[in-house]
Structure formats: structure tokens, C-alpha cells
Amino acid sequence: MAAARGLTKLYGIGLHAIRQNTTLKATTFLLGALRQQPFDSSAEKPQFPGASAEFIDHLEFIQPNVISGIPVYRVMDRQGQIINPSEDPKLPKEMVLNFYQKMTLLNTMDRILYESQRQGRISFYMTNYGEEGTHVGSAAALEPTDLVFGQYREAGVLMYRGFRLDLFMAQCYANADDLGKGRQMPVHYGCKDLNFVTISSPLATQIPQAAGAAYAVKRENTNRVVICYFGEGAASEGDAHAGFNFSATLECPLLFFCRNNGYAISTPTNEQYRGDGIAARGPGYGLMSIRVDGNDVFAVYNATKEARRRAVAENQPFLIEAMTYRIGHHSTSDDSSAYRSVDEVNYWDKQDHPISRLRHYMTARGWWGEDEERAWRKQSRKLVMEAFERAEKRLKPNPELLFTDVYDEMMHESLSCPQSEKMDLKIIQSLLERVQLCRRCWKTKECAGAGGFF
């Protein structure tokens, strides 16, 4: 009996050992299987809400020059020959002639008003030499109802839209015909009827304003876009970041048009930024972007027209960087010979000018010749000089207009001032005398209201 119990116990021990061994083998097999089939971390996708990307397992910084550079789109070469026939906009003769006449008329006006400032007739001026193609090419691709925010070198856009020479002259002379009533510096144009917002002197203020306007246009659900012009120097302002970001996140029908003319006053592009121009910034903000030859009026036209079409259809902003060159001084307050050579300027003036390029195109088709050129140059100068002479003879605006369009309701109250006694604003004959008088009160602390007045 005892032997039987011992045999049973031995069997139980053996069975337990077999089960343990089986479990151990099964566990070992399972662990081995896991080791043989490791977890594939590359299949794991990032879930961060701030970016669309993949994981990598090696340290690598993104180089600023990952690509050789954004290419420059063009239609014509420097001799006016169409490079790719499929890109030729095939514009009618009358339209191309209008392009040329507006570009050359702007050039003539620039020369006369520049000399006018040098003679002391006006206080300030900025020319558009070398950038005429960016103005006319972009303006022609827009609709009259599209809203324009300019910087201070887009006179050709206004001219193409129908702004008369008399109005250009009136603004620069600040006479009684000036739509701005003489309250702006020269070349700070604006025209409500032509949907051109009055230009501001500070750089880049128009960029976030344009984004807000484009958002309003989107909410109106009308077939309109907003176009905002600025230079590559203005793109370094903080306002540019705000405008780019707001327009992209709010999905606005807005065209950012950057004139990269090589210089921000005296600062060349190689001292302004280290990246690949301005178009390279677009993808970072979520902007559809393109770089075009700004001296090729057809390339500018094609790019702007397609960007406008898509901006309306898709409700998204576009960034166009037009590569060009500022042949003239930044303004009449600048001497560009101090920071660039005469040879550099002459190259762009003689070898790669938007006006000469378009003239080559027209000449090759028999649309323009020496006789037409001489006749038009003479006529355009006559038109500008006639407007110039009329502007000089006009009186200045009434000083009281300084306060109109500022307050909702004008209050003509008498000023309680020991120096001026009870002078009513309506009967003040000279604004300058009144300002000087009240400044004297303020300095001597005799008039409690004068400080608040200013």
C-alpha cells in the first residue's frame, strides 16, 4: 500500500514537471516569436496637430538650400521672342499697343515730374523706371471691381485703370483738384472710383489691411479679389507675417504681389535675407506661390490672371514674386550712385528693360516702327506737359478741408484762448497762422485747451 502511494506521488511530481516544462517551452517560443518579429516603428504616424510629417530615426537639420532655387517663369526672351508658343497669351494688337503706350506714358510722366522736383516745383517724387511691366501686366489681368492696395511704386496700375494725368499732377502738386485735398505727400495716390486704396507711407501697413479686406470680400461671396503690392524690403516687416498668415488660415481671395527690384532703398537683397527670395516663404505660410520675370509683361499677365481665377474659384491666397530691377533712385531723397555702380544700372536699362522687350515683340509682328515711336513719344510728352502746366496754375485747397473726412460731425466752436480770444474755425483765414498761434499758447502754458488740441 505504501509502495502504491509512493508511485502515485512520483507520478504527480513527474506530471507537474512535464506541465511546467511545456509552459516554459510555450513561453520561450512566444518570446522568441516576439523577438523574431520586432515592432515596426516606421509604420507609426505622428499625431501632432501642428504639422503633417513623418517620423525619422536619424538626426538631420533642414538645409536652407535644399533645392537650387525657385525657377523664374517667363514667356518672352530679352529680344521679345516667344519661348513656348503654348504660353503666349495671344492678346489682340490693340491690347498690346495699350500696354506699350501706358508703359511709355508712365515713363514720360516720371521724367517730367522728377525734373519738376529737382527744380523745386514739387516737394518729393518716386519714379517707376524699370518696373513698368509689373504694373501693366498685373493690372491688365484684374477686373475693374477688384480692390487694389498699393505701396508707393504702382502708378502704372492706376494709369492702366484710367487715372487721368491731371489727377496724377494734382496729387503731386497738392492743388485744389487733388482727390486727397492736398493732405498727402506726392505719389500717395488713391481713387475710390477705381477701387485703389490710398497709399500709406509706412512700409507694409497695407498687407494686413488687404487680408482683412479680402476676408470681407469672401464673406460677400462676390466675384472679386484683393491684390496687395509691396517690395521685397517690406516683406521683412512684421505686418507681412500677419497678412500672409491671416489670409492663409482664413482662406481669402487675395493676391500678394511682391516687386523684388533688388534694393530696399540702399539695402541690396543679399543683406536683406538669406533665403531664396520671397516666393520661397509662401509654402511655409500655406500660400500658392510663383516667381515670374517682372520685365516680361506677358509672364506677369499670365501669372496674375491665373492666380486671380483660382483665388476666386478656390478661396485661397496666392503669392507672386516678380523679379525686376529698380533703375531709378529710390526717391528724390536718394542717391543710388552711393551704393551701386553706373554699369550695373546701365545693364538693366539697356539690356533687359520691360519697355524695350515689348517693343521688340511688336516690331517683329509689324505692329510698331520708328515712325509710330517718334509720333507717340512726341504726343505723350505733349499730353504730360499740358497736364503739368494746368496743375501749376491751380490754387491750393481750402485750409478748412484739413478737417473734412476726419470727423463724423464738425463742431465750429470758438476757441477759448487768451492769444486768439474767440476766433471761430469758420473765419480763420490762415491755417498756418492759427497753428503757430496755438503752439505759442501751448509753450507758454497760457491756454489749457491748446495742448489737448494738438
UniProtKB/TrEMBL annotation:
Pfam families given in the database record: E1_dh
GO BP: branched-chain amino acid catabolic process
Name of the protein: 2-oxoisovalerate dehydrogenase subunit alpha
InterPro entries hit by this protein: Alpha-ketoacid_DH_E1_comp (IPR050771), DH_E1 (IPR001017), THDP-binding (IPR029061)
Subunit structure of this chain's protein: Heterotetramer of 2 alpha/BCKDHA and 2 beta chains/BCKDHB that forms the branched-chain alpha-keto acid decarboxylase (E1) component of the BCKD complex. The branched-chain alpha-ketoacid dehydrogenase is a large complex composed of three major building blocks E1, E2 and E3. It is organized around E2, a 24-meric cubic core composed of DBT, to which are associated 6 to 12 copies of E1, and approximately 6 copies of the dehydrogenase E3, a DLD dimer. Interacts with PPM1K.
Organism placement in taxonomy: Eukaryota, Metazoa, Chordata, Craniata, Vertebrata
Species annotation: Sinocyclocheilus anshuiensis
GO-annotated molecular function: branched-chain 2-oxo acid dehydrogenase activity; metal ion binding
Domain Dehydrogenase E1 component: 101-400
Catalytic activity of the protein: N(6)-[(R)-lipoyl]-L-lysyl-[protein] + 3-methyl-2-oxobutanoate + H(+) = N(6)-[(R)-S(8)-2-methylpropanoyldihydrolipoyl]-L-lysyl-[protein] + CO2
Record's subcellular location: Mitochondrion matrix
Documented EC number(s): 1.2.4.4
Coiled coil residues, start to end: none
Stored PANTHER family: 2-OXOISOVALERATE DEHYDROGENASE SUBUNIT ALPHA, MITOCHONDRIAL (PTHR43380:SF1)
Keywords assigned by UniProt, alphabetized: Metal-binding, Mitochondrion, Oxidoreductase, Potassium, Thiamine pyrophosphate, Transit peptide
Function text: Together with BCKDHB forms the heterotetrameric E1 subunit of the mitochondrial branched-chain alpha-ketoacid dehydrogenase (BCKD) complex. The BCKD complex catalyzes the multi-step oxidative decarboxylation of alpha-ketoacids derived from the branched-chain amino-acids valine, leucine and isoleucine producing CO2 and acyl-CoA which is subsequently utilized to produce energy. The E1 subunit catalyzes the first step with the decarboxylation of the alpha-ketoacid forming an enzyme-product intermediate.
Top-level taxon of the source organism: Eukaryota
GO cellular component: mitochondrial matrix
Cofactor or coenzyme needed: thiamine diphosphate
Record family assignment: Belongs to the BCKDHA family.
SUPFAM superfamilies recorded: Thiamin diphosphate-binding fold (THDP-binding)
Gene name of the record: LOC107676752
Principal location: mitochondrion
